[in-house]
Recover the amino acids of this structure.
């Protein structure tokens, strides 16, 4: 199921769906409900849904975001992401064309930023 | 382009930074007089009430409103709009508004349609970002009880012809509720001359005050039902909520630091408004001329006029606006607002509902150098995407 289809669902709706052989809970915008449910196979499958083949650089960003999240309890700010990965935000956005907060966080299994971006 | 300077261009969301005089004035007054106004008979409470009254009077003068008693303090413009809309409309009523409105107008109307069966028509805007007064009148029905309009669009920066619309509303005996969230503090607002029945304002945008304070100012011939009930400090034995103004529409302890901050902000504006307005107008013009020249940028806002508010919105190669915002923030330290700006129908009309757009809103403390940096940043981003 593409991320687009999730946009039609109501704000409060969560749903289980199968991805990469796992049945996981997602929110209405296609973000994993439980970040701990994530694994690399799920990340690859979520990335493919966005038309992305994950490279070494992708994993660098994904791993940094997850490590930061589980250390500090929130996603890294743009400035922290830059510092932690050594990449510019433009470079990271080129890796995740839908945006860091949208595609990047979704693929990394982080919670929905729930903001008007 | 390396820069360490933080450039804030999101003043349409909230003005930042606040003038030091406003923060100092707010803190000093709250430190000295921050008791519950009018709720005690001791001198400090009486004087605090007097300071609140003086702020009502200042606001009445600022907006050329007829009666300070009908200056009602609220949390913000959204709160004021809800107070007015829910206090005025009855089941089955009809409302005329526009497709330029913010969700602070659209959502209360939507809610009342769902709950009470009110009906409403939303007049479209033209290629100049303006609604036609004639279209407003054409939308009138026998049960039309209210016209609600945003004075200035928070997406396009355009300012509506309120004097003409107010006149037409008055001729038809229909109250006009004006949302001045984006215009108050930028351009003069004249409630009496424009025949506006109620205005909803917020303190924390161009009025340069703190967040958490706003107001609804109503004309003497408009009666609103009480929709919030509680202590007013007067007639306490009566279980029926006080019906005299302003208590009729206020309940509980007022936001004293907010009122002191707003009062200090009004004083600051009085001293500096001409200089501030010139600065904002020049910066917006500079920004428009710079963005217009960049290949790949589509400006949604028309060319700013002298009376426009300092808001410019654009897209970059139809890319998701959040991407642009992230790069501006992370790589250039420039803060803008991306997305739908809580004005979904504007974006639907402009076909930007899927991607959102990037909104720049310079303030009086921005500089030409900062605007030029922003233009350069946008040029670099457009070239790399």
């Amino acid at each position: 199921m593409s991320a687009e289809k999730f946009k039609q669902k109501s704000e409060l709706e969560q749903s289980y769906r199968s991805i990469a052989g796992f049945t996981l809970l997602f929110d209405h915008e296609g973000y994993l409900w439980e970040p701990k449910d994530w694994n690399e196979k799920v990340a690859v499958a979520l990335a493919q849904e966005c038309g992305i083949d994950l490279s070494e650089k992708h994993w660098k960003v994904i791993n940094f975001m997850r490590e930061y999240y589980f250390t500090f309890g929130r996603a890294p700010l743009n400035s922290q992401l830059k510092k932690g990965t050594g990449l510019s935000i433009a470079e990271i956005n080129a890796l995740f064309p839908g945006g860091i907060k949208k595609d990047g966080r979704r693929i990394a299994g982080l919670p929905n930023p729930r903001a008007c971006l | 382009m390396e820069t360490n300077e933080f450039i804030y261009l999101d003043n349409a969301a909230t003005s930042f930074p606040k003038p030091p005089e406003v923060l100092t004035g707010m803190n000093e007054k709250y430190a000295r007089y921050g008791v519950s106004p009018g709720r005690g008979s001791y001198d400090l409470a009486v004087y605090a009430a007097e300071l609140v009254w003086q702020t009502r009077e200042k606001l009445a003068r600022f907006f050329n409103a007829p009666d300070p008693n009908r200056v009602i303090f609220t949390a913000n413009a959204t709160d004021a709009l809800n107070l007015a809309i829910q206090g005025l409309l009855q089941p089955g009523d009809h409302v005329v508004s526009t497709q330029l409105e913010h969700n602070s107008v659209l959502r209360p109307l939507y809610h009342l349609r769902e709950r009470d069966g009110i009906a409403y028509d939303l007049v479209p805007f033209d290629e100049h970002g303006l609604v036609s007064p004639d279209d407003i009148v054409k939308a009138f029905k026998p049960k039309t009880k209210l016209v609600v309009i945003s004075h200035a669009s928070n997406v396009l920066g355009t300012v509506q012809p309120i004097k003409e619309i107010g006149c037409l509303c008055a001729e038809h005996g229909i109250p006009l509720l004006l949302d001045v969230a984006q215009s108050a503090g930028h351009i003069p607002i004249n409630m009496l001359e424009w025949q506006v029945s109620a205005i909803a304002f917020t303190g924390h945008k161009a009025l340069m005050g703190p967040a958490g304070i706003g107001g609804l100012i109503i004309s003497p011939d408009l009666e609103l039902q009480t929709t919030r009930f509680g202590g007013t400090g007067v007639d306490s034995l009566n279980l029926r909520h006080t019906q005299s103004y302003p208590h009729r529409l206020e309940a509980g302890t007022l936001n004293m630091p907010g009122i002191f901050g707003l009062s200090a902000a009004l004083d600051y504006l009085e001293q500096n408004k001409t200089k501030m307005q010139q600065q904002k107008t020049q910066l917006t013009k500079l920004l428009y001329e710079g963005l217009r020249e960049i290949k790949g940028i589509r400006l949604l806002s028309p060319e700013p006029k002298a009376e426009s508010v300092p808001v410019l919105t654009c897209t970059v190669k139809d890319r998701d606006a959040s991407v642009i915002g992230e790069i501006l923030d992370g790589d250039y330290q420039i803060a803008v607002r991306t997305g739908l700006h809580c004005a979904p129908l504007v974006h639907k009309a402009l076909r930007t509902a899927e991607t959102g757009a990037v909104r720049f809103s310079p303030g009086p403390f921005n500089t030409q150098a900062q605007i030029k940096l922003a233009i350069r940043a946008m040029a670099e981003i457009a070239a790399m995407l």
Helices of chain A lie at 3-6, 40-49, 56-72, 78-85, 89-95, 100-107. Chain A has a mean pLDDT of 89. Chain A has one domain: 3-107. The interface with chain B takes residues 78-79, 81-82, 88-90, 92-93, 97-102, 116-117 of chain A (CB under 8 Å).
